[in-house]
Amino acid sequence: FVPIGPQTRDVSMLEILDPLCPSCRGFERRFAEHRAAGAVSRRALLFPLDHACNWMIRESIHPGACLVSEAVLCAEGDAEEVLEWAFDHQEDIHAAAEA
After folding, report:
1. In what order do the strands lie in the sheet with 2-4?
2. Predicted pLDDT of residue 74
């Protein structure tokens, strides 16, 4: 699990996400504005929809998501920043992965 934000809050939330998923990005942005956001300790379970590392799918829905997920995991304490960078640059990453 990848910690997202402070982990000292009373309520825990587990998010299953793909760092190149536009819907996941939308959820992150909407949740950040929600009044409950400051009361929740959040952790992410990375589930890239990319066949390069996900044996459960035959074709990549989000090519490049495996590499980005690895970067998030390797970032350890900076994982939240890498995830936010990936959300901010999804279109560029998709284009580079397809090329």
Report:
1. 2-4, 40-46, 11-17
2. 95
How far apart CA 81 and CA 52 sit, in angstroms, is 23
Both ends of the chain: CA-CA distance in Å? Answer: 31
Amino acid at 20: L
Distance between CA atoms of residues 45 and 95, nearest Å: 25
pTM: 0.88
* Burial zone of 21 (CB within 10 Å; 0-12 exposed, 13-18 middle, 19+ buried): buried
* Residue linked to tokens 């279109």: 91
- Condensed to tens digits (0 to 9), the pLDDT of residues 7-66 reads 999 999 999 999 999 999 999 999 999 999 999 999 999 999 999 999 999 999 999 999
- How far CA 83 is from CA of 47, 51, 55, 60, in Å, comes to 13, 20, 22, 19
Cα–Cα distance between 78 and 22 in angstroms, integer? 21
Q: How many CB atoms lie within 10 A of CB 98?
A: 9
